[in-house]
């Protein structure tokens, strides 16, 4: 088990939007790392910088100061190795669930038949095999979110970053989505980071971090990550 391998390292990474008096510091210098096998919740109110921090980790945003590196991933910034699940599932309406899940693979140049097979496997991981031939309009919010998660899993990511994946769902469905993410991360051997407003969602992850006005608050480790070595003291945050 590569429990100590660092997948993402943020060193004093900050992101400011705009300039001058109207500039918004979305993330003040954040220092943290995500390791293989981690199960981390990042909680915080709306506007506290959770999405921006996730985007920095996913290389969707560049830090305005400090740096983000991916020591355990072969490509920098990593392509495909980091999967991002967004709050709204944003499936393509004209494509079936399996076609949606296969789309990133097809766009990456994987042959259609192989992409469909991998997509079908990913749908099975999220318990959505029976939804494969449905169009997005025929799916409930929770079902659509499971398909969106399958779309990410089909790429075989080493790290899954889920940005408020339960934000638009009722509590029971939201908890099911967390079950699905945890099971799929275990099956894939991927690390998992989930941002949330909901403390009951945050408690489902092994480790809880928090954002407050753009600052990452030190972690409280609820329990040691399953299958990994005990954490070293002084880990940040
Ligand atoms: N592209 C952008 N341009 C300008 N300001 C932005 C941009 N993205 C985020 N911000 C600002 O940065 C701050 C942090 O936003 P962010 O979306 O990271 O917070 P959040 O905690 O994820 O919020 P939510 O839970 O509502 O999604 C907010 O004040 C937001 O308005």
Automatic annotation (TrEMBL):
SMART domains: AAA. The keyword Zinc does not apply. SUPFAM superfamilies: P-loop containing nucleoside triphosphate hydrolases. The keyword Nucleotide-binding applies. One of its GO terms (molecular function) is ATP binding. Keywords: ATP-binding, Nucleotide-binding. Residues 8-236 form the ABC transporter domain. InterPro entries: AAA+_ATPase, ABC_transporter-like_ATP-bd, ABC_transporter-like_CS, ABC_transpr_LolD-like, P-loop_NTPase. It comes from the Bacteria. Residues 215-237 are annotated as: Disordered. This is ABC transporter ATP-binding protein. It comes from Streptomyces mauvecolor.
């Amino acid at each position: 088990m590569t429990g100590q391998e660092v997948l993402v390292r943020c060193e004093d990474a900050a992101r400011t939007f705009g300039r001058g008096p109207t500039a918004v510091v979305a993330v003040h210098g954040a220092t943290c790392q995500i390791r293989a096998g981690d199960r981390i919740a990042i909680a915080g109110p709306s506007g506290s910088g959770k999405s921006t921090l996730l985007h920095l980790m996913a290389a969707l945003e560049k830090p305005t100061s400090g740096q983000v590196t991916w020591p355990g991933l072969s490509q920098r910034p990593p392509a495909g190795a980091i999967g991002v699940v967004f709050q709204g599932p944003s499936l393509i309406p004209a494509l079936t669930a399996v076609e949606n899940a296969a789309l990133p693979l097809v766009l990456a140049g994987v042959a259609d038949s192989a992409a469909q097979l991998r997509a079908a496997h990913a749908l099975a991981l999220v318990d959505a095999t029976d939804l494969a031939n449905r169009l997005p309009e025929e799916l409930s919010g929770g079902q659509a979110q499971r398909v969106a998660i399958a779309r990410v899993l089909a790429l075989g990511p080493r790290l899954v970053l889920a940005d408020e994946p339960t934000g638009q769902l009722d509590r029971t469905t939201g908890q099911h989505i967390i079950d699905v993410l945890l099971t799929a991360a275990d099956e894939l051997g991927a690390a998992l980071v989930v941002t949330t407003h909901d403390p009951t969602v945050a408690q489902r992850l092994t480790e809880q971090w928090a954002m407050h006005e753009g600052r990452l608050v030190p972690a409280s480790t609820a329990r040691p990550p399953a299958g990994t070595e005990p954490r070293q003291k002084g880990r940040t945050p």
